[in-house]
Each structure stands twice: as structure tokens, then as C-alpha cells.
Amino acid sequence: MKCQNCGSTDIIDIQGQKYCINCGQQVMVATPKPTSKPPATPKAKGKTAPKAQAQSVGRTLNLKPMPDNANHPEDIRPHPWRFTAGLSLSVALPVGLAVAASLGLQLDRDISLYLLLVSVLATCVSLVMSQAALMYGLSKNQDGRISARRQWWQAARSGFMDLLNLDLMWIIGFLLIIAAGFGALQATSLLPTDSWYRPVSLVAANILLAWVLIGLFTARRMAIPAVVVGGLTAWQGLKIGWRAYLRFGGKLAVASTETVLIRVATSILIAAMVLALVRIGSQWDTLSQAVAAGAMTAGGIFVLFVVSLQVELKLWLAQYRFWLPATHPAGRAKLLAGRRGR
Length: 342
Description:
The radius of gyration is 28 Å and the shape is flat. The protein contains 10 helices and 3 strands, in the order E-E-E-H-H-H-H-H-H-H-H-H-H. The two termini are 19 Å apart. A hairpin with a 2-residue loop joins strand 1 (11-14) and strand 2 (17-20). It has helices at 52-57, 80-104, 109-142, 149-158, 160-189, 197-228, 234-247, 249-280, 286-327, 332-337; strands at residues 11-14, 17-20, 26-27. By secondary structure, the chain is mainly alpha-helical.
């Protein structure tokens, strides 16, 4: 039996349904048409006739329920916490060691700056890739489709440049909104100081810019699943996210507020850790301060990964899966299964 989608012969049987391990799509089994007279099967001496179920399906399939990873060496279940912990530790520990070595060995300023830039870049790239991979795997799992871990990373790699373009669009839009705010402030300063419409105009302009800023933030968050799961480009995902904000702005603004509050709480936690280290460790020797700084850096990165992968990702994936198919019923299949990991 071959998959109608990719032609692979790696087929498994799960709860009576056939799935392709390569692409995760369900494989349709052709059933023979019933005839008026069933063909007579000669009975051999000393042998029993084969079972009817085995005749219809064939010998190539195992009809017993099989575990998800029976035909594949990988564990293809999501395991989001295990995935998050493994990735966060694999990034946090090397960066923490680099910070500790830079401070403890008192390296040159240029070398320390280089290590800092490499650490920040590696952390950002790892965070973007891990978010995309886990988002793809969780979405496939919620649809009841099987996807191996390597397919998660393939989907993340194929959508990485679109995610970078999406972040670039967000930065450009944010800067334009800030520039528009300064422009509105300068424009209202030209109005007469004793007129009542000067403060009203300034307040109205600020409210409008705040609405646009929240919409841009919400559209970006909705566009990330559209790019990773739906396989859209950055501009297409941003347009779909903006249309969803225009239609369900109030409900999506609540999710945006939750995200901002979560980030503020995370920033306060990390800042409190830094201040505690500065106050407590000021009397320590250089080696102890270096070890404490490395441990705190690793802890901050671990907290950042956990918040991003376990809180923000699940929040916005749920928003995407709930609102966008309702907004675009004709493109439901595209929005939920547009990108395919190979």
C-alpha cells in the first residue's frame, strides 16, 4: 500500500485508520465492490480458509493496534515540556558557561563583546526555531495527524526566513507608529494654545495610534502560526492576522494584554534576579561573581524559553485555531495544514 499524497510505503495502523509516517496524512484504503455471488474458494485438505478481513486488506498491513513509534525510531508524540526543557538547557548552559568564562578569566573587551553577540544571536535563533517546531508539532497533534520530530524541524527551517521577514515588518511598523506619534505631537503644537480642540486632537491621535499598535502586535502574533502551520508568506500571514483583529479586535486584544503582562512579569523576575546578584555578590571574589553571573544567565534563558514555549505559544496557537478558520472557512484546510514537513 502506498500513500496517495507522497507515495511512501511507510504505513501504520492506529485505531483502525491508516496513516503515512512520511507526511502524516491519512491513507484511504480502497474497499472491493460487493458482487452478487462471492467467488468460491476451494477447500484444501488439512487447511482452513483465510479470514475475510485478511483477504480484504492484504498481508502488507498489521491489523493490530500499534504504538505511535512502532515503525519509526523516533518518539513522535509532542511531549511539550520535555521538548522545552531539553532545548532550553541546551541553549542556557553553553551561554551561561560563556558568560562565566568571560568574567572569570577576565577576557579582553573585544572577545567578551564577541561572545555576547554570539550568545544573543544563538539564543534568538534557537528560540524562533524551537517555537516554530513545537507549534507545528502541537498543531498536527491537535488535528490527530502523526508527525515525526524531524518533520517539526523541517517545517521550522522552511518557515524561518518568513518569520524573520515578519519580525522585520513588525519592527518597521512599530518605528512608523512612533514617528507618527511624534508627528502628531508636532502638528498639535501648531494649534492655538487656548483652543479646546488642541488637547482633544492630541488625545484622539494617541488613541488611534495605540489601537494601530495593538492591532499590529496582534496581527504579528496571529501571523506566526499562519506562517508555520499554514505555510503562508509573511505578508499574507500579516494580512490575515490584521483582518482577524478588525473582526474580533476586542477578544484578541485580551490575548495581547495577557501576553504583555506575562512579558512584564518575566522581565520583573529577571531584573529582580540581577539586582539581587548585584547587591549580594558585591562582596564576593571574582570567581564567585563569575559563577553566579553564569548561573543567573542560564536561569534567565531557561525562564525565557519556558514562558515563550509553554505560555505564549499555546495561547496564540489556540487563538489561531479558533478564530482564523471561522474567519476564512474556505481556506480552513490551507490554514491548518498548508505547510508539510518532509
